[in-house]
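Hi R.,

Here's the chain you asked about this morning:
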Amino acid sequence: MTEDEAWEFLAGAHTGILTTLRADGAPVTLPMWFVVLGRAVYLSTPPRAAKLARVRRDPRAAFLVEAGRAWVDLRAVHVSGRLRVVDDDAARRRVRDLLDTKYAAFRLPPERLPAAVRAAYADRTVLRLDPRGRLLRWDNSRIRLAGPPAAPEPGPHSPTER
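And here is the predicted structure, written out as tokens:
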């Protein structure tokens, strides 16, 4: 996939996988909701989240989105770069609004959340991942395979097993 297609794929993905580093260099990988603006990935997190402390100590990070179940359908984009806290109030509001719009149908109503969870997410810190180097990207559906497709093996997900 081209660089433009990779950013379009990123922007349309639902959940990304963020990796940050502990003080000893060990990676910590977490699923995150996000939005793409321009050629940067924006995320938000509660201000007391451990990931925020990791980012402040070492801003190096990686972010991955993927799709597909069968090998021939696998697509992914991997972004390596540096995370930084967004300090600009207008930019923070814009990112929070975009996140709220993108994920409105997937969130629980605030009244269903425990008070401590509501309080933790009331004020979110916005992070920006700026890519360093080129994106790693692949789309197995574009690989020209040799020969005709193989017949599916019978199994629990095949139509013959229903």
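One quick note: The chain has a mean pLDDT of 89.

Cheers,
M.
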